[in-house]
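Justification of resources, computational component.

The compute hours requested in this renewal are based largely on the per-chain cost of generating structure records like the one below. Each record pairs the submitted sequence with a full structure-token output. That output is archived, and it is also reused by downstream analysis tasks.
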Amino acid sequence: MELRTLTDAFGPSGYENPVRTLIRQEAEKRCDDVSVDRMGNLICRKPGRDRSKPAVAVAAHMDEIGFIVVGHTDDGLLRFRPVGGIDPRVVVSKWVLIGNDRLPGVIGAPPIHLQERDDLGKVLPFSKLHIDIGAKDQKEAESLAPLGSYAVFDTPYMEYGDGFVAAKALDDRVGCFNLLKLLEEEYDCDLICVFVTQEEVGLRGSHTAAFSLDAEIAVVLEGTAANDLGDVEERFHVCTPGQGVAVSFMDRASIADRALFKTMLKLAREQGIPAQVKRGITGGNDAASFQRGGRGARVVVLSVPCRYIHSANNVAKWSDIRAQADLARAFLKSL
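The structure output for this chain reads:
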């Protein structure tokens, strides 16, 4: 499956059905044991050739940031709120797609000419923004986009520059893309590939997955904020696109198993896989659930550096995406 297909797929937190269907179709070509649990996590089990080896779960989340309709105005506009962490500064004038029918809309705000003086220079909150779907009145808006309808950014996939890709939902469809790659091969260890739901709203899907799977080791494939551009001092850069997969020693939700962290960096050096240490103690991801769920697991996170994360356009470099898959594969082969 192409990365473009995954990033184009509709799958905000809590409504991962469309993207899960796509992934399941591909997973079933590579794995005989594919199931969906009560939280909607897609779980693929592949027995290893040596049953004495530890079971390894490799996880990536299917969901993306998005929006949900919470009201309608008399003149046919949609009131909405974010699903996941979205800065209101990055959404104005962006196109979105709403619901199963992918109804187009554009996020609007009062023009600068009509804003109150107190609003000038401030970030308009989501309560002062709306989605315009071209409806003539409230009744039409309600019929086209009922309360609870989901929306995602409408951003075309694009490759540009020196090996860069821009798209919505690179966080974390890059991880899903590479997880499918891992399923193409055989390993000595038992492999459990988990395509997780609702990561962006509090690691909800991985809580149940971690508890039920009870894997000894969990490797989480993620996308992470690079913070490497503009006036940001170099010491505040989290990671750098083009310098390889970012291996985390710690974030705000989990601490990597020290032996796994060192093993990943050693394998990268030995096999010539581009890798870097994630330098910022930022964010959190599904590793926290696997570390704490059930009897716990030894965890490590491999992230693709992304610019403009949690916006309509995420930017990553293909060399880093490949490095994430190569290092995860090398680790599984090394056990």
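The chain has a mean pLDDT of 94. Residues 66-153 form a domain with the Elongation Factor Tu (Ef-tu); domain 3 fold (CATH 2.40.30.40).
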